[in-house]
Backbone:
């Protein structure tokens, strides 16, 4: 499958599980995750990146991103798991059991 099979040219979003999944959501998550890991980033930049990253979690859940990929950074993995658990009635660890 190619990118245009998932999101055709000229289309900026798809709807899945009632959520509007915008083109660029995964890319934005990656940029925010990298910024959070950057020791030279300012506290304000990290705070904005964390806020934006957390806001993307429902979309990434709907895409199934965390069912396929595991975050390598223990700090980022724990932070994302904490926020995912707050979004779902079942803890993130229980979904993988």
Residues:
């Amino acid at each position: 499958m190619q990118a245009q099979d998932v999101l055709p040219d000229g289309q900026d979003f798809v709807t899945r599980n009632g959520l509007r999944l915008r083109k660029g959501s995964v890319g934005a998550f990656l940029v925010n995750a990298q910024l959070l890991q950057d020791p030279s980033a300012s506290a304000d930049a990290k705070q904005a990146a964390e806020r934006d990253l957390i806001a993307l979690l429902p979309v990434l859940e709907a895409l199934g991103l965390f069912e396929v990929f595991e975050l390598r950074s223990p700090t980022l993995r724990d932070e994302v798991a904490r926020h995912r658990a707050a979004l779902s009635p079942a803890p993130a660890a229980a979904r993988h059991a």
Notes: Residues 3-87 form one domain. Confidence is low (pLDDT under 50) at residues 91-97. The longest helix spans residues 43-63.
